What does this fold into?
Amino acid sequence: MMFKKRPALLVTTALVGALAIGLIAAPAQAALRHVDGTVISKNGDNRTFKIRTQTGNRLRIKVNGTTEFERIAGFGALHQGMQIEVDYLRTDSGLLAKQVEPQGGGGGDDSGGDDHGGGGGGADDGPNHT
It folds into this structure.
């Protein structure tokens, strides 16, 4: 009788183990999101800035040593009224900018597929583009 329950126990143990691995790996695969907006404030002490998105939402975004600034001379160059594009991750401590750049074209490595928030569904406008 004990041998009949053993396969069910092994299957249950395997499923629990697979779910546990999935839960541990999920945070490492956080979705990169994209947002276009206008800088409304900046806090140098906390290395954060706030933007108003094109839909009117306000977001507080943190930068760190891994944040890349393209066509902007770093965090210090962000200023109120600047229109920017931000790629960010949602973390336990809030939103973390991975890349920040001015809205619009302007050379650099812009491949032409980016519609810069124009709603035309550019090549980089994935399902998380807001």
Notes: The chain has two domains: 1-30, 33-102. Residues 119 and 125 are 9 Å apart (CA to CA).
